User: Which sequence fits this backbone?
């Protein structure tokens, strides 16, 4: 089974849990709306790529870890789109969850997706119980306090913000969780050695996201654009200018490839990362 | 160390994680506000009481499981108090989190507390790695989909509600998680056998909460009262009347005691449960 099929199939099984008879059907519908149809699935694909580079001897657990990362990403999108944050009406080209289901169900669908992430990993753990702690540790670090994506988002509520801390936590942390959890799920001897790869890729992805917000239109990326400038938010484009941000993206992509630890599938993973990071640059800027 | 000290000390260590240098300080403050000063801690005390009745040979893990249950309870209070649900200005006798820190940090503090619950259990797991899956499974069932407290809260967004499903999920589920996770943390042979005790206690607690909402004043219980009636919410008082609800509470307390499985500390646990359930009846009704 290829990585994309593993991810979609594990996510489908996870979301199915919400649709049991006797459970509130609108909550399940809101969760499904948040997870399907799919986005780029860039984080879970990264997680599975790392697991495969490390031998991937427990594919059920690595698929669950990857799905868990994506569920947490979807949860963060649901909450970040709410009126008290980005107030975004659209996401992935259609109504955001609070626009489609109301604010109460947006809060609860996000909460339930966070819990579902941990349920999903725990349910896959009987194949390798001793790896569950490290996998959950990696995922928890990427999402929670002190330096996960929730902490990153919370910097928007602070009077003073360091751009690098903000972006590393808001985006990089979940990429690092994807690489570390992928390695831990595959039983790699030192999962923490994979953190640097995730950090660099996360930073690259954040710069690319800032570039998209600055140069793309809503129809192309399926969500409102120009939000960073409109809301006065910190962004790489605001800090380095458009050209500076493009150069920073290239530097970070090289640093990511250089950060891949020695492992059985190192060559193949390098090629994959190079290909993925090339795709991050908005088409308008690549052809300019 | 007594149960109360174990709970407070484990919660204090957990919340300290949010206060690391380089993390957003207002998020940490909002989380601390949600967890301290303490409420009744009825769920974590139940969890530890069950662990002790089962031998409690890994107290670090059972303390973490108990703290995790309380963190999830606090998270649910933070989100349920928000304007899109109960719109409660006070909680535990002072400002609710969104009143003290704003809506964005209320959303994020709740999210971070959910994640912290799982981080806390995972960090305690090295002493008994094979128990982590069952403990997280029990906790996830109590909070998430299909039948946990988030699902319970989501019934408030459905056009038709069954009172028994609603209350079992909204309140009973976390009590059941407290008993099952306590048993699993202590290595009990069949943790699921402890679910019935939690279910019954949760239902008793929900009936007691409905009674308090109907007969107490805000100064006594530290949060707004009369909300069920004002918001037209399902409640045991609305369904059975005041006397009927009092009788139902007594029946449920007896059923809880009868549901305690055979275990080394059965006698002591029975006495404790009897004492706790007696305290649930609002003083006004007990003296009437």
Assistant:
């Amino acid at each position: 089974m290829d990585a994309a099929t593993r991810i979609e199939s594990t996510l489908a099984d996870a979301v199915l849990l919400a649709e049991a008879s006797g459970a509130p059907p609108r909550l399940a519908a809101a969760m499904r709306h948040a997870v399907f149809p799919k986005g780029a699935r860039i984080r879970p694909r990264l997680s599975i790529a790392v697991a495969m580079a490390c031998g991937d001897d427990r594919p059920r657990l690595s698929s669950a870890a990857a799905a868990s990362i994506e569920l947490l990403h979807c949860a963060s999108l649901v909450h970040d789109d709410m009126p008290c944050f980005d107030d975004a009406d659209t996401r992935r080209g259609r109504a955001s969850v609070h626009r489609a289901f109301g604010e109460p169900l947006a809060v609860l669908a996000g909460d339930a997706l966070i819990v579902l992430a941990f349920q999903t990993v725990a349910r896959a753990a009987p194949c390798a119980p001793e790896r569950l702690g490290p996998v959950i540790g990696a995922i928890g670090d990427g999402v929670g306090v002190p330096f996960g994506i929730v902490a990153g988002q919370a910097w928007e509520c602070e009077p003073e913000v360091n751009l690098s801390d903000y972006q590393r936590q808001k985006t990089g942390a979940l990429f690092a969780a994807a690489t570390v959890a992928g390695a831990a799920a595959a039983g790699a001897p030192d999962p923490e050695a994979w953190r640097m790869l995730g950090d660099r890729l996360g930073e690259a992805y954040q710069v690319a996201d800032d570039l998209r917000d600055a140069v793309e239109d809503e129809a192309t990326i399926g969500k409102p654009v120009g939000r960073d400038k409109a809301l006065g938010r910190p962004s790489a484009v605001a800090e380095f200018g458009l050209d500076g941000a493009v150069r920073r993206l290239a530097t970070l992509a090289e640093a990511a490839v250089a950060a891949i630890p020695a492992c059985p599938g190192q060559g193949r993973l390098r090629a994959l990362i190079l290909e993925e990071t090339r795709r991050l640059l908005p088409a308008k800027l690549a052809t300019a």
User: Anything to note?
Assistant: Chain B has one domain: 3-278. DSSP finds 15 helices and two strands in chain B. Residues 229 and 238 of chain B are 8 Å apart (CA to CA). The longest strand of chain B covers residues 90-91.
